[in-house]
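step=predict obj=Hydroxymethylpyrimidine/phosphomethylpyrimidine kinase n=269
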Amino acid sequence: MKTALTIAGSDSGGGAGIQADLKSFAANGVYGMSVITAVTAQNTQEVRSVQDIDNEIILDQIEVVFDDIPVDAVKIGMLSSPATVETVADALKKYEPKHIVLDPVMVSKGGHHLLRQEAIQSLKEKMIPLATIITPNIPEAEVLIGGEIVSSEDMLSACRQLRELGAKTVLLKGGHLEGAPNDLLYDGESFHWFSGERIQTKNTHGTGCTLSSAIAANLAKGHTLYDSVKLAKHYITIAIEHSLALGHGHGPTNHFYELYRKAGVKNEL
Ligand SMILES: Nc1ncnc2c1ncn2[C@@H]1O[C@H](COP(=O)(O)OP(=O)(O)O)[C@@H](O)[C@H]1O
Ligand SMILES: Cc1ncc(COP(=O)(O)OP(=O)(O)O)c(N)n1
């Protein structure tokens, strides 16, 4: 069985972070492993508090997995601090996994900062150049390029600027713009739009985590980058369509594998 490792924060509410990643890995048919960078006390309404994990323990978690178990793809989410960005980047340079999917998580839906302001530069310099693909949403991309994105044309130009930061490929997610949630993939040569239709629901907690983990799972299984994104876009659409009205805020995506299988998606090599 192929494997994927998530390096991310824990969401006690189970909708985003490590918990969403592991569910997405399982639903997409890979064996999931985790390195926890921070623990958030979080539900569908708020992030109440955050405790960063010591960097020695983050490093131990990475080493103990790589020293023993094959890792076919890595997904990176919440990194919290500059020291964590550096610890993770240094370790990945040592182990050189074939695929690194970087979701540059910055702020939760409720407005809580999951990446400190002073870590943004380290993320740009140390982590983005290691990535096979980065998957920023619109506000994250705006921070990374230092400019506004309000239209499809802006998305095209933002992708070019984001790629100049050193990632091999950029998937700029359009969920935060008005209208259809269309995502744009750019590999330095060509652009591909992955178009979607907006599903009318407030239950979109963890959409970014779900999508990036599904991409990592598909890469782990040997799909091309284009196919990995295409399959993952299909997966997130179904997971939002069937999202769960749990809690009083933004409910989580639904990783019910049977639903995915019955939808007729052939995701096996
Ligand atoms: N209401 C929606 N209906 C359908 N797809 C959506 C909706 N909201 C977001 N998406 C899709 O979910 C994925 C995550 O997008 P986005 O919300 O932009 O990122 P994030 O969760 O990181 O803020 C993207 O593929 C986006 O197009
Ligand atoms: C621990 C943790 N990691 C990441 C996020 C952000 O997840 P995302 O998929 O972008 O979903 P929203 O927070 O925007 O709903 C998180 N909240 N917690």
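step=describe
The CA atoms of residues 10 and 39 lie 5 Å apart.
step=end
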